[in-house]
Design brief:
109 residues; 70% helix
Length: 109
C-alpha cells in the first residue's frame, strides 16, 4: 500500500477514510480542500454521491405514508454498514467503486 501525501500533509489512505466519516458533508469538505490527490478526490466524490442520495431518500421516505414507514427504519443501519465498509476499503488503499456511484464519481474527478 502506497501512502502518498496529500495537500493537507496526511497519508492519502487516512484522508480518504475521513471522506466518509460524516457522510456527504465530509466528502464535500475534502473535495473542496484536496486539489491534487486523485485517490482522495475519488473517495470524496463517491462519499458525496452515495450519502447525499441516502440523505435525500430519507427525506422523501419521511413524507411517503406506508412505503416511508418501511424504508425509513432500514436507512440508518444500511448507511452505517456502508460507511464502515467504504472507510475500510479507503484505509486499505483500495479504490473500491460502489456500483453506479463509483463510476459517476470517477468520471467527475
Amino acid at each position: 500500500m502506497e501512502n502518498n501525501k496529500t495537500s493537507l500533509g496526511m497519508n492519502e489512505n487516512i484522508e480518504a477514510l475521513l471522506c466518509y466519516i460524516l457522510g456527504w458533508i465530509s466528502g464535500l469538505v475534502f473535495l473542496l480542500i484536496e486539489k491534487e490527490n486523485k485517490f482522495v478526490r475519488f473517495h470524496a466524490m463517491q462519499s458525496i454521491v452515495i450519502f447525499l442520495a441516502l440523505f435525500l431518500i430519507s427525506l422523501v421516505s419521511g413524507i411517503i405514508p406506508i412505503l416511508g414507514a418501511i424504508i425509513s427504519p432500514l436507512l440508518f443501519p444500511v448507511s452505517l454498514v456502508l460507511e464502515v465498509f467504504l472507510m475500510y476499503k479507503a484505509f486499505k488503499g483500495e479504490k473500491y467503486k460502489f456500483p453506479f456511484a463509483g463510476n459517476f464519481a470517477e468520471k467527475q474527478i
